[in-house]
Amino acid sequence: MSTPFDLPSLDDAVETRPTRLNGAVFSSAKHDWRTPAVVLDRVRQIGPIGLDPCGAEGSLVGARITLSLEDGNDGLSADWVQLIGGLEADPRLIFVNSPYGSEVGRWVAKAVREARAGAEIVLLLPARTDARWWQNHVRAAAAVCFWAGRLKFVGAPSSAPFPSALWYFGSRVAAFREAFADAGWIVGAPR
């Protein structure tokens, strides 16, 4: 028997598409939102960043290994676990701020696959809790931080027109929670 509190299954999750009225707010006209230092400083509290598979000119990430389409390196096709395996013990943390357009779901799926293969990952995303990619993959994250307020990305004239969240995959959940404790609301993924 169904109650008002029953949730639909993931198979029933429907992605909300922007209408013409709100299309500008949810458009993916800008894909390369560069991570601000306020986020990266917290990520580095977990550990040094070994890999940035979504590197771009002007990025502040400063990973030991940076993949960039500008340099002909496709982070979606690279083996992240293999790349960080070639580094000394630290840095092995992977930071992902993927392009925010229609490809975001592919980047999330890639991060989940790499995490299942043993990678430790912090993934910065638009908080699109109604999106199919969110509903299909959020349960794989060990913790999620819903950033309080709107981020102001590097080079942007104002704050982002969307909320942000950070997903964490790995065994240092306590370090993630400590690093982001004052940045927003942190929850464990529903199990």
Q: What this model shows, in words?
A:
By secondary structure, the protein is α/β, with parallel strands linked by helices. 23% of the residues lie in helices and 17% in strands. It has 5 helices and 7 strands, in the order H-E-E-H-E-H-E-H-E-E-H-E. Strand 3 (93-96), helix 3 (104-116) and strand 4 form a beta-alpha-beta unit. Mean pLDDT is 79; it is low at 1-30.
Please tag this protein with its features:
7 strands; seven-stranded mixed beta sheet; about 190 residues; 5 helices; about 25% helix; alpha/beta; globular
What's the SSE blueprint?
Elements: H1 37-46, E1 49-52, E2 65-66, H2 80-85, E3 93-96, H3 104-116, E4 120-126, H4 132-137, E5 143-147, E6 164-169, H5 173-180, E7 184-187
Parallel strand pairs: 1-2, 1-3, 3-4
Antiparallel strand pairs: 4-6, 5-6, 5-7
Helix pairs in contact: 1-5
